[in-house]
Design goal:
- By secondary structure, the protein is of the alpha/beta class.
- The chain has two domains: 144 residues, Rossmann fold, CATH 3.40.50.1000; 85 residues, Orthogonal Bundle (DNA polymerase, domain 1), CATH 1.10.150.
- 46% of the residues lie in helices and 10% in strands.
- The chain has ten helices and six strands.
- It has a six-stranded parallel sheet with strand order 3-2-1-4-5-6, sandwiched between helices.
- Pfam families: Hydrolase.
């Protein structure tokens, strides 16, 4: 990897920089397993559902996609809905409540290989941003002790405030590059989700890197990743 060909690295957060995907997956599984059981749905929630319907999507879109896979229709509701309300937003808020409980009680540690790449990029002068569908991104970055590494964070809150479509659209990544003052063609997108590499492929980015944390290398390539690694340390070049 020759980083002197690029001026910016645009990182997804969950599953790329930190293993928060594991916390998210646990929270989604608890929420949907309880919900489906209570409604008497015979097809249980599985890990495959996470990768097929939820991974990388904004939270409420993930809820809607998962419900649609079981033929369940609920009112969309409002982001202010209580976690106890059975609406798309209520279920999303219920999942977020579970996620926050686990994050605060157990904390989070960034992947060692990801930290190594961040150190390398800082040394060679590549600008860095985080682009996450999660509204918890700032809290996760603080918990992992890496918030000061990223002058630009485009998360679910920023996307909502600016009316930016979420992944698999490229808009949040494009906005991050603009905020760094770097052309998208000189920016690298680093993603572990199918919807994320689709977002990178849909934009005019210099390179789309897939990080295989469970989505599958072939699936990431098929949906837009030009390079696939299993650990970000593999991307440390000889600049």
């Amino acid at each position: 990897m020759q980083w002197d060909n690029y001026d910016a690295a645009l990182f997804d957060l969950d599953g790329v920089l930190t293993p928060t995907a594991e916390v998210h997956m646990s929270a989604w599984a608890r929420m949907f397993s309880d919900f489906l059981t209570a409604r008497g749905v015979s097809q249980p929630y599985t890990e495959d559902d996470y990768f097929a319907h939820i991974d990388g999507r904004p939270r409420y879109e993930g809820v809607a996609a998962m419900l649609a896979s079981r033929g369940i229709e609920l009112p969309h509701g409002s982001p202010e809905d209580s976690p106890s309300v059975e609406t798309v937003c209520g279920l999303g808020n219920r999942k977020n409540e579970l996620f926050t409980e686990v994050l605060r009680s157990e904390g989070i540690t960034a992947y060692a290989g990801s930290l190594a790449l961040l150190d390398h990029l800082e040394q060679v002068g590549v600008k860095m941003a985080v682009v996450s569908s999660s509204k918890n991104a700032p809290e996760v970055l603080r918990a992992a002790g890496i918030a000061d590494r990223f002058p630009v964070v485009v998360d679910g809150v920023v996307a909502t405030e600016r009316g930016l479509p979420g992944k698999p659209r490229p808009d949040t990544y494009t906005h991050a590059a603009e905020q760094l003052g770097v052309p998208s063609t000189r920016s690298v997108v680093l993603e572990d989700a199918v919807s994320g590499v689709q977002a990178g492929a849909a934009g005019d980015f210099g390179l789309v890197v897939g990080v295989d944390r469970g989505a599958g290398a072939e699936s990431l390539r098929r949906h837009g990743a030009e390079v696939v690694v299993s650990d970000l340390a593999e991307l440390i070049g000889d600049n």
